[in-house]
Amino acid sequence: RAIYYNTVKPYRRLYEGGIVLRYNYLEVGKKIREEIENEELRKQHPSLDDLKTEFVECTEEGRLTLAYPVFDHQRNGIHVMQGGYITACIDNNFGIFMYTLNKGGLSTSVDLTINFHNAVTKDIDKIWVTSRVVKMGRRIAHLAAEVFDEKKRLIASCISNVIFLELAQNE
């Protein structure tokens, strides 16, 4: 028998050792902001520092938005941001999101499919990545993300599956 949850509520199902947990994404957002803004915690996640990750928001519906400045070394010979750097920003969003939801338990991407829609040209200084959990299973999470620029143009969209290598211990 299926149980349907109102998608407006700030809770989602997450399985840990067969126990259904509910997550308040506003609290998850606070933890992510703390990880990003605290120098000691940031050292545990070097990619946050490498990409100069900035916390923007995490909504009740579970949409995590982080901002990334665009640097000259990330651009190719025609001054367009390389797709690998855009992908790294998306993967960074997914990583910190899953790390926090799994309470520090290890996880890794199974796949990552990205579609590029517009170029990040030389007049763009920052991009925003918004990611969300589409479906959370016992061992695999299906995620989606969109990348926008300062002009609110869709730069890229992505879907990914992440597998939990170990589930965090119950608190």
Structural overview:
- The protein is an alpha+beta fold.
- The protein is 25% helix and 36% strand.
- The protein is built from four helices and eight strands; from the N terminus they run ββαααββαββββ.
- The strands form two sheets. Strands 3-4-6-7-8-5 form a six-stranded antiparallel β-sheet.
- Mean pLDDT is 84; it is low at 1-21.
Biggest sheet strand order reads 3-4-6-7-8-5
Tell me the major beta sheet: 6 strands, antiparallel
Strand elements, count: 8
Question: Would you identify the regions where 5 or more consecutive residues have pLDDT less than 50?
Answer: 1-21
Through-space gap between termini = 29 Å
Strand content: 35-45%
Number of helices: 4
> Helix fraction?
10-25%
Mean model confidence by pLDDT: 84
Quick recap of the structure?
The protein is an alpha+beta fold.
Features:
two-stranded antiparallel sheet, 171 residues, 6-stranded antiparallel β-sheet, disordered N terminus, alpha+beta, 8 strands
Question: How do the helices and strands line up, and which of them pair or pack?
Answer:
Layout: E1 13-16, E2 19-22, H1 25-37, H2 39-43, H3 46-50, E3 54-58, E4 64-69, H4 83-101, E5 107-116, E6 126-136, E7 140-149, E8 154-164
Antiparallel strand pairs: 1-2, 3-4, 4-6, 5-8, 6-7, 7-8
